[in-house]
Amino acid sequence: LVHKLRRLVTGCIRKHIITPCSDLEPEAPLALVAWGCRLIMSEVNSEEVVDFIIKKGLQGPEGDYPKEGQYTHALLRLAKPPLGSDLTDQRLCPTYRKRGLSNSISRRIFNF
After folding, report:
1. pTM for the complete prediction?
2. Helical H segments across 41-107, by residue range
3. According to a count of CB atoms within 10 Å of the terminal CB, is the N or C end of the chain lower?
């Protein structure tokens, strides 16, 4: 599940962090978090993940600011733009849009 989610996220947006979290329930162990909202998942639904990233991925205060952040704790590698996008993430989920996976409406997005 984590590998599938990682593939989707890295194919959609450059600026992301993937990290374990012990606060999630065992029946829904996966989550996407964006500025002020989250999508909790028991399985990886590609359409919902792509839809969430397209709708919420650049809503934070830094938006499409291309500079690398200050996060370095346990950093494995710097993020690269997905194929078909750029450093400012001007095209979120470019590969998945071509496949038509960005048309779903996420019913499990929660604001907090």
Report:
1. 0.80
2. 46-56, 94-98
3. C
